[in-house]
Design a protein that fits this description.
mainly beta, LRR_dom_sf, Leucine-rich repeat, LRR (right-handed beta-alpha superhelix), 778 residues, cell membrane, glycoprotein, 6% helix, leucine-rich repeat, six-stranded parallel sheet, Leu-rich_rpt_typical-subtyp
């Protein structure tokens, strides 16, 4: 990087360097101002004139940005990571003394203006992570002093101009994550100073033309995620300085030969994932390059490549999503034995280890992924240095060895979907404060949960559902104040409602379904919390009594609609991004596995218990609710009319209860409602008509002998009812017309859950493919 780059990385304050040009006794000045400060606007006019270096970071106003453009003496300007928006003002083109300009990580849009070509002194230019569109501005090729150019993560279209190859000092180009098309200019590969070229995630095509490149200084070439189609030419081996090469998912027709990359003598980093790879077999050559990082996932490999035997310097190896079958060969234990930190063998057909070891041998392993294979036998113990260990979706048997607790730096331990037996080692509750995820779902584990969870625990997810665990929930879980997900569903536990969990400030998902829990769910405390709870499933237990109205007053995550459509979807998972939580939701005979859980998915399932009494009106305040299931209980009284306030609701099941009276007309205001079941109650009178009610079938209302009206065949006598199907121009009130209703009917599911966390029964195959859920009809 250039000598001025450290200046551009300052992000904690406003940093000014000014040199007096009017007096001889004034030296440099430094000012550090807090974010959001308006002090810049209040600086004396003489100071503004002499300012030549400025770095701004934070959510500053556009007023400040426009003031900056009057500072004609600026040499270095960085305003990255603000919320500046709109098109770039033309006055920016007046800052002709600029050497470095960083506008990255803002909200600028429109075409990149040609007046930037006037900044002929520029050596560094970053416009990355905005929404600039249009074609690459040809006038940027006038910047003959430019050394670093970054326009990545924008929306540029069209070809890369050949003229860019004429910039003599350009050493770094990043145009990745745009929509550039056409062939890659061969002039880029002969630039005299270019050492790093990033063109990943575009629509660029081949063929690649590497000519006269033996003297090229190119060290880094990233072309992944394009549509090159044509084979990589053997002349790529003439890049004598190339160390980092990424060619993943480039849509090459036919097979790609791995051997051509072995001729790159300096190569250390090689990404070829997502291509059909041809690996020539033969005697292993010890003169092969020593890779540090090698990614060969989704390459149609059927066995471990022999050349890996020579790779004793590997730091990261990815062979996932291939067709490698059989046993892991014993020579594989020596691959990167002293250096390997990340190994991914997931989604293959591996059955066992040729030479089983008590503890896997890599001394510096941090991430080990063996999930979704066919591994049998005892659970292998990962290296003691491991932070993330995935062995889920295999056929591992036997007990969980207590030695797992010696891996005391574990942050994620996922052993779900195996055939493990015995008890959970007691030490797993207290062996480490670093453990954030403990997932043992869907095994054959018996016994009780560990009794002692320690203070200072980092535990965020505890999922032991679908086992044979018995006993009570250990009170020591209250010490795990970072706990967000507690899933104890489908076990043999027997306890009262764990009201004391309300002290956990971060608890968001509580699943106790299909156990032997009993008694009321009323808390002995009046100031109940569960303020972040957004999924609660107590179904298929023996809970009884009335629903306490005070509970619903403090479930803040369910109370108020807070602009879901405009917010970026967030998923439940650990901070590293390696692990994402998943849960199972039951509704309308469909078992839906949410392989990702949106934080805006709000669900209450109290079905199949012995709750009684009337529904408290406070439940009508839970305006974020998407799924509400109170079926198969003994609720009485009327259906609360306040349910009409649940405007986000998409699935409502009140079947198999003792509800009385008429169906509230207010329910017709639920324009996102896709599923309704009010069957087998004691409801009377006409079924409300119009809006979503016109989409429900007879089954939604059957078993209520005194109900009448569409869709039932029984007509309402002596009651004037009109089926309400208004014309397109008809209005349901101010600002609401039939178009809105049809949008709610046709696409309410998508709007409400953003990417599909909703329960539907039609077009299940399409739904599963589109929204990444597993559906099992019961």
């Amino acid at each position: 990087m250039n000598q001025y780059l450290p200046l551009l990385l300052i992000a904690s304050c406003l940093f000014f360097i000014s040199h007096s040009q009017t007096t001889s006794n004034t030296s440099s000045q430094h000012r550090c101002l807090p974010e959001q400060s308006s002090a810049l606007l209040q600086l004396r006019k003489d100071n503004l004139k002499s300012l030549n270096g400025l770095v701004l970071s934070g959510n500053l106003s556009m007023e400040i940005f426009h003031s900056i453009l009057n500072l004609s003496q600026l040499v270095h300007l960085s305003i990255s990571s603000n919320n500046f928006h709109g098109q770039l003002p033309s006055t920016l083109g007046n800052l002709t003394k600029l050497i470095s300009l960083d506008l990255s990580n803002n909200l600028f849009h429109g075409e990149i203006p040609s007046f930037l070509g006037n900044l002929t002194q520029l050596e560094y230019l970053s416009l990355s992570n905005n929404t600039f569109d249009g074609r690459f501005p040809i006038l940027l090729t006038n910047l003959t002093k430019l050394q670093n150019l970054d326009i990545s993560i924008n929306q540029l279209i069209g070809p890369i101009p050949c003229e860019i190859g004429k910039l003599p000092q350009l050493s770094y180009i990043d145009l990745g994550s745009n929509s550039l098309s056409g062939s890659i200019p061969s002039s880029l590969f002969t630039m005299p100073s270019l050492s790093s070229l990033y063109l990943y995630q575009n629509h660029l095509t081949g063929p690649l033309k590497f000519q006269n490149i033996s003297s090229s200084p190119l060290q880094t070439l990233f072309l992944s995620g394009n549509k090159l189609y044509e084979p990589i030419p053997r002349s790529i081996s003439n890049f004598s300085q190339l160390e980092y090469l990424a060619l993943s998912s480039i849509n090459v027709k036919g097979m790609m030969e791995l051997n051509i990359f072995f001729e790159l003598k300096r190569i250390k980093y090689l990404r070829l994932s997502g291509n059909n790879l041809l690996i020539s077999k033969g005697k292993v050559n010890s003169s092969l390059p020593k890779f540090g990082l090698l990614y060969l996932s989704s390459c149609n490999l059927r066995e471990f490549p022999d050349f890996l035997e020579t790779q004793n310097e590997l730091v990261s190896l990815d062979l996932s999503s291939n067709k490698i079958e059989g046993k892991v060969p014993k020579w594989f234990w020596n691959v990167g034995k002293e250096t390997l930190q990340r190994l991914n063998l997931s989604f293959n057909l591996l059955s066992s280890f040729e030479q089983p070891l008590k503890v896997l041998p890599w001394k510096n392993m941090a991430y080990l992924d063996l999930r979704s294979n066919m591994l049998q036998g005892m659970l292998p113990i990962p290296p003691l240095s491991t932070n993330y260990f995935f062995a889920s979706n295999n056929s591992l048997t036997g007990r969980i060895p207590p030695m797992i607790c010696q891996v005391n730096s574990l942050q994620v331990l996922d052993l779900s979907n195996n055939q493990l037996t015995g008890q959970i080692p007691q030490c797993l509750g207290k062996f480490s404060t670093s453990l954030a995820v403990l997932n043992m779902r869907s095994n054959r584990i018996q016994g009780k949960l560990p009794k002692t969870f320690i203070k200072g625990s980092n535990l965020r997810t505890l999922d032991v559902s679908r086992n044979q665990i018995k006993g009570k929930i250990p009170r020591s879980l209250a010490k795990c104040i970072k706990l967000e997900v507690l899933n104890l569903g489908n076990n043999n536990m027997n306890d009262i409602f764990p009201f004391w969990l309300e002290s956990l400030p971060e608890l968001q998902i509580l699943i106790l379904r299909a156990n032997g829990f009993y008694g009321p769910i009323r808390s002995p405390r009046t100031n109940v919390s569960f303020s972040k709870l957004h999924v609660i499933d107590l179904s298929h237990n023996n809970f009884s009594g009335r629903l306490p109205s005070e509970n619903f007053k403090t479930w803040n995550a369910m109370l108020m609609v807070h602009g879901k459509i405009n917010s970026k979807p967030e998923y439940m998972g650990d901070d590293s991004g390696y692990y994402e939580d998943s849960i199972t939701v039951m509704n309308k005979g469909i078992e839906m596995e949410l392989v990702k859980i949106l934080t805006i998915f709000i669900s209450i399932d109290l079905s199949n218990n012995r709750f009684s009494g009337e529904i408290p009106n406070t439940m009508g305040n839970l305006k974020e609710l998407i799924v509400l299931n109170l079926s198969s209980n003994s609720f009485t009284g009327p259906i609360p009319s306040c349910f009409g306030n649940l405007t986000e609701l998409q699935s409502l099941d009140l079947s198999q209860n003792k509800f009385l009276g008429e169906i509230p007309q207010q329910l017709t205001s639920l324009t996102f409602l896709a599923y309704l079941n009010l069957s087998h109650n004691q409801l009377i009178g006409p079924i409300p008509q119009g809006r979503q009610f016109g989409t429900f079938q007879n089954s939604s209302f059957e078993g209520n002998l005194r109900l009448c009206g569409f869709p039932l065949s029984k007509k309402c006598e002596n009651i004037e009812t009109t089926t309400f199907w208004p014309s397109q121009e008809s209005s349901f009130g101010e600002g609401f017309n039939w178009k809105v209703v049809m949008i709610g009917y046709a696409s309410g599911l998508l709007v409400g859950l953003v990417i599909g966390h909703v329960i539907i029964s039609r077009k299940l195959d399409w739904f599963a493919r589109t929204f990444r859920v597993n559906l099992h009809i019961q």
